[in-house]
């Protein structure tokens, strides 16, 4: 049976990446990036790509969007059309733009989960060693503009990556400093008019590093505000406040991963994706990610099981879309 030719797309808040794929293999030379602000909707982006690449026929199309899939559609709340309405990514729009009869819509994290097992080894960096059980459940954790995580289950009927919004669970509070941090973040959010909830996203997303630096600066009696990029630069320069922020980040991440590991039992590994995971990878060993993860609890699973790997492939979501389609995925 000849491979299917598919169009795959990954929609972020700023850019959309589009490519062609043969079954589960993305054509690297076909990847194109479009600035979302130049278009009025996903159908316009995909139609532009079709013209650019001179594509007249496709077997399928799969689009991943940074938002929950509800009733087969993703609503991009930070992207708007010419009428001020949010972008909607659904079957009808993708079909109209591509002419494909086999169409699928995924959450971007679900697409990343579908990509596991199809990513080149050189794009996988192990940061916590541990045993793996091929075919067992995995866990994909996104650390970027937002935070989310989802289990990846391989079943006799195909791979299942259930939707999740666990970036909004409470941040782990284990000691007095953690409690002070949670209260500090809640006060910051309230002062800016946001809902005062110290969720995991407020400490592990890009803005989380900003919050952690502000807290560390306040604790040092030197109130200051830096962007996440500035915090990372300060960390590389040996700044003590940035080091405190990094220590908090790694410790909270380790405990969050430990909680998620015990909930989902990902014996085939935990996989970190997103810009923050890649930015913080050089600092994981320095600030003791593995030691904090492998803490003693009433069960000894964290002491001996599970591995943690950083995915360093910018096109993993595209690969996940292609793999999902190639295995017959729809919806």
Mass-distribution shape: globular
Question: How can the largest sheet be summarized?
Answer: 6 strands, mixed
CATH third-level topology of the largest domain: Hexokinase, domain 1
Please give the oligomerization state of what you see. single chain
Ranges where pLDDT stays below 50 over 5 or more residues in a row are none
* Top CATH class of the largest domain: Alpha Beta
The residue fraction in helices comes out at 25-40%
Gyration radius, in Å:
21 Å
**What's the mean pLDDT score?**
94
Indicate the CATH architecture of the largest domain.
Answer: 3-Layer(aba) Sandwich
Q: Main attributes?
A:
alpha/beta; 6-stranded mixed beta sheet; Hexokinase, domain 1; 38% helix; Nucleotidyltransferase, domain 5; 331 residues; 2 domains; 12 helices; 15 strands
Question: What's the layout of helices and strands?
Answer:
Blueprint: E1 5-11, E2 15-22, E3 25-26, E4 32-35, H1 42-52, E5 60-65, E6 69-70, E7 73-80, E8 86-89, H2 91-98, E9 102-107, H3 108-115, E10 124-128, E11 138-143, E12 147-155, E13 158-160, H4 176-191, H5 201-204, H6 206-219, H7 228-236, H8 240-264, E14 270-273, H9 275-284, H10 289-293, H11 301-304, E15 308-311, H12 316-326
Parallel strand pairs: 1-5, 5-9, 11-14, 14-15
Antiparallel strand pairs: 1-2, 2-3, 2-4, 6-7, 7-8, 10-15, 11-12, 12-13
């Amino acid at each position: 049976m000849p491979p299917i030719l598919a169009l795959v797309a990954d929609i972020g808040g700023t850019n959309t990446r589009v490519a062609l794929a043969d079954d589960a293999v993305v054509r690297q030379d076909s990847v194109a990036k479009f600035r979302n602000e130049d278009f009025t909707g996903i159908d316009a982006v995909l139609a532009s790509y079709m013209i650019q690449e001179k594509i007249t026929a496709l077997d399928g199309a799969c689009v991943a969007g940074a938002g929950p899939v509800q009733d087969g559609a993703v609503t991009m709340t930070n992207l708007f059309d010419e009428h001020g309405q949010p972008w909607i990514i659904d079957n009808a729009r993708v079909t109209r733009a591509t002419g494909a009869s086999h169409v699928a819509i995924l959450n971007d994290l679900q697409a990343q989960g579908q990509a596991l097992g199809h990513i080149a080894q050189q794009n996988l960096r192990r940061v916590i060693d541990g045993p793996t059980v091929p075919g067992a459940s995995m866990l994909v954790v996104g650390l970027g503009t937002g935070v989310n995580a989802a289990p990846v289950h391989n079943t006799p009927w195909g791979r299942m990556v259930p939707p999740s919004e666990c970036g909004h669970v409470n941040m782990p509070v284990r000691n007095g400093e953690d409690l002070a941090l949670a209260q500090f973040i809640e006060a910051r959010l309230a002062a800016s008019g946001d809902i005062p909830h110290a969720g995991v996203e407020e400490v592990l997303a890009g803005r989380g590093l900003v919050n952690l630096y502000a807290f560390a600066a306040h604790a040092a009696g030197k109130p200051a505000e830096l962007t996440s990029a500035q915090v990372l630069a300060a960390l590389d320069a040996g700044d003590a406040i940035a080091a405190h922020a990094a220590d908090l980040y790694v410790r909270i991440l380790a405990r969050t991963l430990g909680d998620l590991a015990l909930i989902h039992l990902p014996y085939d590994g935990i996989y970190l994706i997103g810009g923050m995971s890649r930015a913080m990878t050089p600092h994981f060993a320095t600030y003791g990610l593995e030691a904090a993860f492998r803490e003693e609890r009433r069960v000894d699973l964290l002491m001996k099981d599970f591995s943690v790997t950083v995915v360093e492939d910018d096109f993993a979501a595209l690969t996940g879309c292609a793999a999902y389609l190639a295995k017959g995925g729809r919806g």
